[in-house]
Amino acid sequence: MKGKPKVQPFRRKKEGKTDYRLRLKLISSRKPRLVIRRTNQHITLQVVEFHPDGDKILAAASTSELKKYGWTTATKNVPAAYLAGLLCGMKAKKAGITNAIADLGLNKTQKGGVLYSALKGAVDGGITVPYGEGIEPTEDRLKGKHISENIESQFEKTKNNILKEKK
């Protein structure tokens, strides 16, 4: 065998699941990360802190938890993502976390989209997260007016239930 041996990339990089350069930048900030991930049916938010023996989850929320607060419609739209972000922000604040850095992973981002609505919810819940101006959705989209009038009323009820319980 001549020359250098071939270096195998990390498994998660090969599978397209982790961007290790971005992860190193986020970890080197020494702040907790607000990890926002999308699945086929739900939006998940976690406040994660780096530890050498493995990341520690300090607070978490998902759109699947919204049923407890009265949410009965779809769990992958803009209003549901905002409510899950609000719930995660309130849990993090209760755990003593005041600031974090957004980690959107390898998800495609869109101005005013689901990921940014979850980020806006977390900020409204009490976490300070730096983000660019104008990327969050409008109030009408957050409340679900673009979907239907029923969702707007359900959004307000669910939001009030979340705010009441976490105080």
> What proportion of the residues form beta strands (DSSP E)?
5-15%
Order of helices and strands: HHEEEHEHHH
CATH topology: Nucleotidyltransferase, domain 5
**Overall spatial form:** elongated
Q: Helix coverage percent of residues?
A: 25-40%
Text of the CATH class = Alpha Beta
Unreliable segments of 5+ consecutive residues: none
* Total domain units: 1
- Indicate the CATH architecture: 2-Layer Sandwich
Mean pLDDT: 89
Strand tally: 4
Q: Determine Rg (CA atoms, Å).
A: 18 Å
Strand order of the largest sheet: 3-2-1-4
- Output the structural class: alpha+beta
End-to-end C-alpha gap: 67 Å
Note the main sheet.
4 strands, mixed
Number of helical segments with 4 or more residues? 6
Please explain how this structure is put together.
- The structure is a single chain.
- By secondary structure, the protein is an alpha+beta fold.
- The protein has a single domain (16-165), classed as 2-Layer Sandwich (Nucleotidyltransferase, domain 5).
- It is 38% helix and 14% strand.
- The chain is built from six helices and four strands; from the N terminus they run ααβββαβααα.
- It has helices spanning 11-14, 20-28, 78-94, 114-125, 139-143, 149-165, and strands at residues 33-38, 43-49, 56-62, 101-103.
- Strands 3-2-1-4 form a four-stranded mixed sheet, with helices on both faces.
- α3 runs parallel beside α4 (114-125).
- It is elongated and about 70 Å long.
Task: Summarize the topology.
Blueprint: H1 11-14, H2 20-28, E1 33-38, E2 43-49, E3 56-62, H3 78-94, E4 101-103, H4 114-125, H5 139-143, H6 149-165
Parallel strand pairs: 1-4
Antiparallel strand pairs: 1-2, 2-3
Helix pairs in contact: 3-4, 3-6
